Each structure stands twice: as structure tokens, then as C-alpha cells.
């Protein structure tokens, strides 16, 4: 099932997407819901942010090829994580599909995308085992972990570099059924492909993360875990359109615009 | 005004505290509300977490004496922040006044408290000026930024060390009117004072943080900013009771209990 949060005729609701049609649902996919008889053409509705997570988890370094390439370039040995460790992002930064990423006036030209698979948690979970871990997953969406690399080097932590308003596009919808083994993530800038990797080719996959995190944390319905990215981004500039395509989910598209000083 | 989230007779509501009495309010202090005629004795109600912030901001190093003492001990020069920078904490870790901090079975003995003033945001704000900054503040509460120092050194980021379940007690209530200039924070372990500092003796105060943050972030009603701590904590052990007292707000009290392995 493909769950879309949308607005039509001034009303925001959940809906189920089939082809280019969305059927309005009352209630909430993470709770109780009922399908109605009302439908819209997908092109006629405003796509909204699927949800604001209670806790916003994000994996840093999680793709070997990316780490290896970076280390090769620097002439160093890759610092490969020895265990699944997590970071956090800020809810203020979230925006929906087709909304604009606003590059702050004070930012440098080092604005980069990171195309990521996003795991959406469906039920409260702690102390998950390997066998049962995936039962807490509701579905999947796509995230763009936009970063200002100059700030990333200069700041304590990642406060501005990854969490400025609009730096976390997420969407367009939540897909409940995917085939992790065969998925690919492809990224395009202004229609031209700039990156492609096997989505599940992670150093630590979803199950190890769920097991490790829930040793310490309770996951709640609506929490999201952004799973990291592979490859590198060109510097993005005013007017660029970034599309992140993940097999079986869809395409997250956002235009980057420079804030007026 | 002193706003308390509480449960009585199975019902959770907001209330206004006067002395040892709480008057039930319908609605929400950050929106519309109406005082009812129903009252309870404060001692008869279960005190709840005041709110779950949309974004959970937390200042790291923000008290000069603390930085200087640590540097003196290490024989180094204090690394004093040159500008207000912010971090994040995880919502999963929040608990209420009088709920137990559960020390994970795998944690070391290096469990420390950090007594902090918490700023609660009352309205949406961006690009605040120095003159208008405080208008977005709804009130103040108290936070205990519990830390596992061994994990803090070993982990990438602060994921477990500061964000394990129950590591973020916050409360007991939100006080809308305080006198920042005269406030003191006092911390007691099992009734014995182990720390005391002037609450507003910060390297960067509330106004500089609000101005700097809102250059990049939109603050939302219910967001919280934990303002950092001074002094050091002894190692806390199973059964210890930590009280953090802030003049004009009240006392946040939590027992520390060790998880059974």
C-alpha cells in the first residue's frame, strides 16, 4: 500500500495511492482508518509531509563504497564503523515533496544532497530480536539529507549544516511493501543522473540497526530512521532540481532556491 | 502562572498550580484554554511530562566556571565557545518528575546528572531580533541531562550516552514568570547538596541563542531549549535520588535505578 498525506479543497487527509489516483481515507494509517469512496487525481492534490516523527533518527556513514572512495581520494584507510550507531536530525528542517529547499543567504556554495532510504516505524518497540525486528516497520519513504559542507566542518556538531529549515525533504509518500534486495537509489540534478547505488548495500542493514537501537531506545509509531547515503553530490545552486528515485517507492523532487540576503 | 500536566482519576489534563492545589484547565496553555472549577490537592495527582517537543534543542558547553575548572584539572586552556551553537536530544528519552531514570544493565558506573534550565517556546518564530527575542518564550521548566560518560567517550556522537530511554527527566511543571537575574540552580543527591550555580551565569544567555538559532531555524510552540549546566556530578548508583532545584520554578526529582541484566 502507498500512503499519501495530501491536501485537496483545503482539507488535509491521508489517502491511498493507486496509479495516478488517490482515495481519501479517514483516520490514520498508524492507527485506525477507513477507506472512503472519494478519489482525486494525484496531479490535482498538494502532497504534504507524511508525518513529523517523535524522534528523528539518522545514520551517518553506512555505505562501504562511499567510505572507501573518500579514503582512497584522501590516501587514508577508511574508518569503517564497527557497530551500528545513530544520530539525530531536527524536525524543524522537514519539508514535503515539491516544496523548496531554501539555501540560507549566509551559506557557501557547498550545498549537497544525500539520497536516503527512510524507514517508518509502525509500532512501539524495545529490545527487538533479529527474527522479530522487521515487524515494527510500517513502511518506507525517501529522504534528502541536505548538507552545507563548510558549516559541517566549522560547527560544533551538525546543528546548522544539516538542520537548517527546509534541509530535510521527505516523501512523497510511505510505501508499505518493497523488495529491499533489488532496490536501487538513483539521483538526478536537473534531469541528469549524478548518482546511483544499491539501496540495501549498507554496512549495517535495517535489522542490525533496529536490534542495536532498541537495546537503549523505545521506538514509537511515526519515528523515522534515515539509513544513510552512498556517493557524492555536486555543489548545488539556485534553481537546481534534485530528484531522488528509489525502486518501488517513487521519486522525491525538490527545487533548491537561494534565500534573498 | 505555573502550568502542570497531570493525571487524576484516569484523566490527563493541564492545570494551574497555586500553592499545593491544582485547578483543572480545559484546552492547552499554548493554544486556547479555560479554567474550570475542579481542583485537586497537588499531592493527589500524578505529575506528567509537560510536553513532547517538536524539536528538542540542547546547549552543550555554556558555563564558564565549569569549562575553566575542567581545563584547570586537565592542565589545558579552556575551549570557550565563540558563538552560540546548539545540539539536539532525542524525545524517546523524556520522562516526568518522580519517574525513574533506568540505568541500562550494560552501562558503566559513570552515570552523571546535569541540572539545566529549560526554555519552553510559546509561538512560532524566525529571524528574531535581540529586542523581540523573549516574546517567543512561554515559560521555564527544569531538565536533568543524564549522561553515561564512558559511552560519551566511546560513541560516535552522543547517541546512547545522552539519549537512552529515561535519560531526560523534565518538569515538574512550566513556570511562566521567573527572575532570571536572581535564580540559582541547586542539585542534591539523597538530600545532600552536591552543586550550586547562578542559573543565568551562562556564556551565551537565552537572547543570543534565540537570535542565532532563528537565523536558521523556525522555532515552534512546544519546542524546548535546554540551556546547559555548571559544575560536575558524582557517579550515581542504584537507588540514588537526584533533586534539581531552580529558584522560582521548583524541584525536579528522580530516582536512579539499575536495570536488571
From TrEMBL, chains A, B:
Keywords: Hydrolase, Metal-binding. This is Fumarylacetoacetate hydrolase family protein. GO terms for molecular function: hydrolase activity. Gene3D superfamilies: Fumarylacetoacetase-like, C-terminal domain. The lineage of its organism: Bacteria, Pseudomonadati, Pseudomonadota, Alphaproteobacteria, Hyphomicrobiales. Residues 1-47 form the Rv2993c-like N-terminal domain. Residues 56-256 form the Fumarylacetoacetase-like C-terminal domain. Belongs to the FAH family. It comes from Bradyrhizobium jicamae. InterPro entries: FAH, Fumarylacetoacetase-like_C, Fumarylacetoacetase_C_sf, Rv2993c-like_N. Coiled coil: none annotated.
